[in-house]
Each structure stands twice: as structure tokens, then as C-alpha cells.
Records
---
Amino acid sequence: MEKIVTIASMALFTAASSSCADEPQTAPWIVDRFDDIKVIRYEVPGFAELPLDEKELVYYLAEAAKCGRDILYDQNCKYNLPVRRTLETVYENYAGDRECAEWKALEKYLKKVWFANGIHHHYSNDKFVPEFTEGYLLDVIETIPEERFGELNTLRREVCTAIFDPEVCPKRLDQTAGVDMIAASGSNYYEGVTQAEAEKFYADMADPRDPEPVSYGLNSKLVKQADGTIAERVWRVGGMYSPAIERIVYWLEKAAEVAKEPQKTTIAHLITYYKTGDLREFDRYNIHWVKDTLSNVDFVNGFIEDYGDPLGRKASWEANVNFMDREACRRTEIISENAQWFEDHSPVAPEYRKKQVKGVSAKVITVAMLGGDCYPSTPIGINLPNADWIRKEYGSKSVTIDNITYAYKQAALGNGFLEEFMLRPEDRARIEQYGKLGDDLHTDLHECLGHGSGQLAPGVKGGELKSYGSTLEEARADLFALYYLGDPKLVELGVVPSMDVAKAQYANYIMNGLMTQLARIEPGKNVEEAHMRNRKLIAEWCFERGKDDRVIEWVEEAGKTYVVVNDFDRLRTLFGRMLREVQRIKSEGDYEAGAALVEQYGVQVDPELHREVRERYDALGIEPYGGFVNPEFELVEQDGRVADVKIVYPCDYTQQMLGYSRDYSFLPNVN
Ligand code: ZN
């Protein structure tokens, strides 16, 4: 899903007086919090060690990643740019009372607009409800010299309506069946056309016999013109959004100069696509991009994901720049290389082990810049390209972003969650030290080996377990991972320093499965989602089977309920026994046994415990959504040549947003 690049401008860098660059290790991870949002900074380990040409490549790609920010604002809603700019002008110029409740509400609203790249919540799509009045905003504007607002003065009515009138663009995206989804959605992908007209326009365009269909409509707005005909306004140099796209192309051309083959050609295809708007060229770019698995620095930059278009056709602009995390890739390589050993030694019955295992490789990356629809809120994994025919012929790239998940973990430390739910200090200490490594390894083992392990009995086709199939499949992969996390082989292979990693993972897994995951379930509901059922199934089964020896135990203390693991070795043995049984169920297609297992252990919620967990979780006040501030990069020149690229970590969300609006804003108010 994405790629791109960047580097912060010198202006931004030098202006960042609030930068925590001197002490990135000790600066707080959460740099801002408002409403239901926390803003986190992320670090880019390994950047300083990159060769100079790769640092330079990151720099140019990072610049390109920042240049499309305005495009996304305009795509999300046509009022977003004038709203943002009006509020920023107010924010930077108002000399009155900045402590009163209404000002604080206005400031919070602006922070939310920056976070969502517009006036609608990034996740729920609902329009924000301002907690200040239109009268207050107009009064504040009155105190600021008119010329500061420039052209915005003529758009005051539209801006106020967009912010304050609940009838105008109430949702960014509305896919309710039966309504005209284009009319109901506040996004800016269509103008003057009905849903039926748009659907017909693209149905007429498609050639059903084309084995390599281009993604029609991906890079354009569809509009009804004055003469009543319908046409696309294409997002390209010379077309819609040209001023921003020209800047993107400028930096991509710089990037192409320092890139090596085959990446040089990949970037050249992207530039041609931006210049022509030709979607066949976009496909050529994607094919080059997906085939290049060796370049250390990689990127996403373009109109990529179509979630924001009610018809699922038009793509929002996004960007990401990254390089390989060699250390983490080494871990997945070691695991993949030893896949056969793990299979041969598994507790599964010999006839249900796979004779020939193929390890799956997964790339782990470090992100250096987020842009467009990946900023501030970002996916933690990427799987691209999206065109089905390219995926089928050329495959796709699947990566996980390690430094982002690390930052999330760091930000969660000290939020009180572990202290509230994990009783024993030694368990908390192990989780703080090894929790992330344990989680990462669990994911590696689950994805690279677990799902691919085992084989079916002759005559069994798969699918026999029906609606219980996905829960049991997740349980199989989790059990494989849990069992091997506690195997001394991992220490021998050098992927973990000690068995404490397994103990941290086991304590956390059992607590989550038996208790804390209930916080995400609505009152009165049972567990329905397959991954959650799987965790409950495993934890409850092991509790039950180890009951006599108190392997896992419920503890009451000071009126609160806790769950503790007393015997990690016995727990691992139980994981092995359960893996053997779940593999047998799958291999033999034993529906009765599978259904009984899931129904008995994976579904029913104890309402008393559920209520207690939700109350304790709510009391912690943890913001449900997170996003990021980007690092900044600076070119260091010596004798007229680039000698180095420096990285710093700003920790002021507002300053970064204002800086981007000052230095990377290229589009007019109305596009
Ligand atoms: Zn899975």
C-alpha cells in the first residue's frame, strides 16, 4: 500500500527550535494528545549508517513525499484547504485571549483537522463537531488585519458552512445501500454527476476482454461540464493538482539521479506517469517496482488506495520512504531457513507433518518519512500493488514497518495498562524488556511457518471445518508460534537472548486471551472475531487442562481480578499438546471435535468479568487512535557537494503541521 519519500526543508529544520534532536532517546514518545488522538514520534534506527548515496536518495524521496499533502486535503473534501488555511491564519495571528475555553476548543479543532487531513474523522468519517461557535470564530477573525487572509476573505461563507452546518458534508464517505453514495459522501472525487452516471461512464470505458485492465478512473476527478457532458479531470502535470505534482516530479527527478538500476528505471516510469497521467504507464511502474526486491531504499508515492471513494475507484494520494531493517530481516531469514527443522520437531503426529516445507520470506522495513494518506495515521504493513492482474503475474511486496510498531509500543509504556492488569512485577519487567521482541517473533513464526505447516490426511480437502475453520486455523498458527517461542532452539539460532522472551510472551498472551481482550467487546456480546476466539480458545483450554497443577491461576487482590502463569514449562507442554490436537482436527477434517472445542472455550463471555475489565480499561483513559510526527532531514554540503544527510526528531506536532503548510503547500484554495 504505499511508498514515498522525503526530507524536511532546511527552513523547517532550522525553525524547529522545539526539536528534541539532542536527546532522542530520552524525549517522550507521545508528543501531543487531544480528543481521541495521541501523536507519537518515531525514530529511524540505521539511517546514520546508510551509505551516502542511499541517504541522499532517502532525502529526495522524502521531499517528494511531503509535496502532495494538499492533494489529499482537497480529495477528502473541497472545503478542506480553505478551512485549514483560515484556521491556521487565525492560529498564527490572533493576539487575544488564548487561554479561554473557546480558544482551546478552536485549537483542538485545528489539531483534529491536521490529523484527519480535513474536517472529517480519519476513521469514522463523521464530520467533526466544533466546540466553539461561529460567532466566536468571526469575532476572532475581526481582530486580525484583513490582508492576512488574502483570497480566503472571499471564501468566509463556505468555510463557516463547512465547519458549522451539520447538513453540509456530514460524512466524508457514505456507502449506505440504496442512497446515491456520491451525493451522500463529502469527498471530492465527483462533481455534478450522479452515482448512476458515474457507474455508466466507467462501465462504458472498461474492456472486459482485456487481460491486463488498467485501473480506470484511479487518477482523476469525474465532472459534469457546462455542456452537460461528463469528463475526467486527470491528476497530472498540466492537469488537476498540477502545481503539487510538479514539485513531486522535481524531487523524483533528483532521486532518479542518485538511484541505481533497476530503481532508476522504476522512478523514471513514475515520473512519466505523473507527467502524462497514462494509467498503462502506472502499471509499468508497478511491475518494475514489485520486481525490485533488492534495492535497500524503497518508496511508495502516488494515487494508491481507493477506500476514500464511495465507488472504490479513485485513489487518495499517499507516500512513504523506507529502507530494509537488516537485523529484523535476518531474523525472518533464519526462521525461514530452519523451517524444515521446526516442522520435523513439532509435537504434531508424524503423519500430519509436512515432508517438504517452503519457508515464506517477509521483509521488515524502517520507515523514514510518511506522507499524504499515510500521515499522521499510518498502516503498519504494506502489501502492494493493488491491480489483481499484476499481483497474479508478478506477485506483490509484503512488508511490516518495524520502527512504527516499536514507537507504538514505546508510547504505550507507562499508560498504566500493564500496572492495572498484570499482577506480578517480574512479569511486567519481562514484558517491558522483551515484549516487542516476543510479539515480533510470534508474528514471524505464526506467518512464516505456522500457517504453512502440517498436512491433510488423504481424502481430506480442507473446508470441512466450515465456520470454525478460520478460528482453528489461527489457533494452529498461534500454537505453533507459542510452542517454538519456548524452544531452546531459538537461543541456539541466536534470535532470542534467553527464555525470558517466551515467558514475557506467555504471560501476556494468557492475560489477553482470558481477560484484557474483553475490553474491545461491547457489553452483552460474546466473542465473534476469529483471532479473538482463537486467543480465548487457547488460553481457556490451557487453563482447564493445567488446573490441577495451577499452571495458570485466577487471583483476587484488593477487589480486582488478575490472571497469572505459575509454570511456564508446563504451559509450553500444554501448547504442544493442543497443537497436536488442533492439527489432528484440521488434518482429519473433524468438524464435530473442532466445533465442540471452539464453542466450549472460545465464545462465551463471563458477564461479571467483562464488566470489570471494561470499567478498569475505561478508567485508564487511553486514546484509541495514534499517529506520528515525521523526522526531519538536512543536507550537509561541503565544497558544493552533498557530504552527509542529518536526521533530527522534532517533537512539536503543531510546529510540524504549520511548517508543512508553509513550505509544502502548493495548491490554490479551489481546485
Ligand atoms: Zn494468521
Note: Residues 446, 451, 474, 477 surround zinc ion (CB under 6 Å).
---
Amino acid sequence: MVSTSTQIAGFAFDNCLMNAAGVACMTKEELAEVKDSAAGTFVTKTATLEFRQGNPEPRYQDVPLGSINSMGLPNNGLDYYLDYLLELQESEPNRTFFLSLVGMSPEETHTILKKVQASDFKGITELNLSCPNVPGKPQIAYDFETTEKILSEVFAYFTKPLGIKLPPYFDIVHFDQAAAIFNKYPLKFVNCVNSIGNGLYIEDESVVIRPKNGFGGIGGQYIKPTALANVHAFYQRLKPEIQIIGTGGVLTGRDAFEHILCGASMVQVGTTLHKEGVAAFERITTELKAIMEEKGYENLEDFRGKLKYIEE
Ligand code: RRO
């Protein structure tokens, strides 16, 4: 019997596939649909302290090789997601879910994390350090000084399981510098990667999304090689207590297999989930299990991180 079960931060999940934050997770209804699908768990849309309308539409476009978005952090506010997660803790006490969040400023991030710390929330928190789409707000994790300051302040009071969502990095020195910072803190995971920020997609003579004159985060097939490189670079550099969640370009079981081979303990599906709906989880799981069966792997530990190099 082949199993795709996994663990993150000591919590067990019966499948390693889940949604990527931003897709199918804005409302309780969408979250319930992911929860009741073949996915192992869900993560909420990144929550800010208060409700946000986000950027003007059109702000998300599926395109043949992926997607482009400039949503601008629309969400229902922390309490909406936290209340739902607290309800689920009662009705589904044997499952663990992820809460994604970030403030519009470091101060707001601390206010939010202190509320989560003070609540009865027993799940996993993902701090989004990589939103590319709020005009005037740079992607936090491209600024190593600010990132380190936030993490050092957060771990002075936050004791619940916490991981971070990262933007893609493109330079070996940046992998080294980022990993050296993350290794100083009791992070449970890093999630690689958010969308590749500020791409431009053109149809005929026009952009396809309204905000920022068409600039937006790129997801889907375009980004798999970058995502795999980030997963593996951090798998090689981070202390073993910090697990990796792999996100980016997962259309098939083969894509999920490659993320795990690069070191991922959980694999998230964004653009494909948007295109195909929650049926994608069952299809990708079936495809992943078929690959594992053919190779004689019974569980993810049999091949996680075991990417082969060409010697000499
Ligand atoms: O809401 C968004 O525009 C958005 C966010 Br917060 C993010 O982290 N990644 C992304 O592609 N879009």
C-alpha cells in the first residue's frame, strides 16, 4: 500500500497535497470545499488585521502556461479566519489547518501574531513574507535586514508552530544569506515559493490585468524550475528541524514527485487548483501514487530529498 501521508511541525496529514494560499481559500465555503476534498489540509487566504477589498478587477488571469495575478491582498480580516479555525478545532479535532497572515506594517504583523498567540488556535501559522502586489509595499523577504528584525521580534513572544512563505530567490549568495538568517530561529518550515513577482503578460497589444498597468505575480508551469531550485537550495542549507513546503508549477503527480525529491514535506497547488477545482487533488494524488508504485516507494520518506546529481 502506497501512502502520501506526511507530517509538518509534528502534526500528521493523510495527504501531502493542499491548496496554496490565495487559491480557493477566501471564504469559509471555499475552505470547506478544500477540507472535504482529497487534500490533506488547507491554508487560508493571507489575513490582515482588517478586511481588505484588494486591487481593482480584472486582477487574476489564467493563461496557457500558468497565471498572473495582482489581487492586492483582498481578505476577510483575521477574525473571520481565526473564528472558522476555532470552530473546526471543535468539529474536527483530529485535523490540523494552516492560518496565513501578514500585517500591512511590521507593527500590524505583531498585533496579528499576538492575537493568534493569545487565542486558542492550535494549528499552524504561515507568515507571508512575499506578497508582490500591494503598491508601494516591497516583498519583505527580499529585504534581509527587515526580515531578520521581524523574526527576532516575533520569536520573543510567539511560541506556536510558525513557518514563513518566501518569494523565489535567484542567486546562490541569496540562498546562503537567507538560510543563515532562518537557521537562527525556531521556524517549523519555509514555504518555497510564492509567485514570481511582477511579470507582464500580453494579449494582442494589451496587458490582461488592471492593477499596476498589468504587472503581476506569475504562477503555474512558468515557475516550476525556479520553485524546485528554491525547495532544494533551502533543503540543502536549513537545519533539519526546519521543513520545506514546496509550491510552484504543480500540475501533475510528476510535478509533486519532483518537489518531494527536492526535499518538500508538503506540496501546495495554486494555479492548477484555480483552473481545475478541487478535483485536482484526487487526480494529482493518483498520479503521484502511480509513480511511487512503479518505483517501489511506499511512502514519501523513501525518496524525499534524494535528488540525484551527475558526478565528475
Ligand atoms: O493577494 C495577492 O495579491 C497575492 C499575495 Br498576498 C501573495 O502572497 N501572492 C500573490 O501572488 N498574490
Note: The CA atoms of residues 56 and 211 lie 6 Å apart.
